[in-house]
């Protein structure tokens, strides 16, 4: 993992691409390839509900445990922690909230029977998200 991060950092330094953009595109896609292959294989076997649970629960578990444990350790040690919000972080929080709200509403309205349009809408939301992050990281779009 350290070598992959170093290679991505080198690519960012040589091309001038912001590390946030590289993290949200290249590293995120590389990190999700294993899940994509496993979920597709399970879906072909007919366990679509299991795939939906894995697709929604896996990243949620990673976020909660990945952020929860360090923040818990920091609070137990009583180390002051400051969180700064820049424009990219604001975009990430906004899109995360909107996608979670969209997913929750779709699950409730369609009784967990999500269709192809839902997937297309999420892909379009991700593409829009990446465009906003690239514009914000290159200082074309200024939020704060």
Topology:
Blueprint: H1 2-15, H2 19-44, H3 48-76, H4 87-109, H5 116-137
Helix pairs in contact: 1-2, 2-3, 2-5, 4-5
What keyword list fits this structure?
single chain, 144 residues, mainly alpha, 5 helices, 0% strand, globular
Care to describe what's here?
The chain crosses the membrane at residues 50-76, 88-109, 121-142. Residues 2-134 form the Sodium/calcium exchanger membrane region domain. One of its GO terms (cellular component) is membrane. It is found in: Membrane. This protein has 144 residues and is mainly α. The protein contains 5 helices and no strands. It is globular, with a radius of gyration of 18 Å. The two termini are 33 Å apart.
In DSSP terms (H or I, runs of 4 or more residues), the helix count works out at 5
Mean pLDDT: 86
Number of strands: 0
Q: What is the percent of helical residues?
A: over 70%
Largest sheet: none
Low-pLDDT stretches: none
* End-to-end gap: 33 Å
Strand residue percentage: under 5%
User: Gyration radius, to the nearest Å?
Assistant: 18 Å
Structural class: mainly alpha
Quick structural summary:
This protein is mainly alpha-helical and 144 residues long.
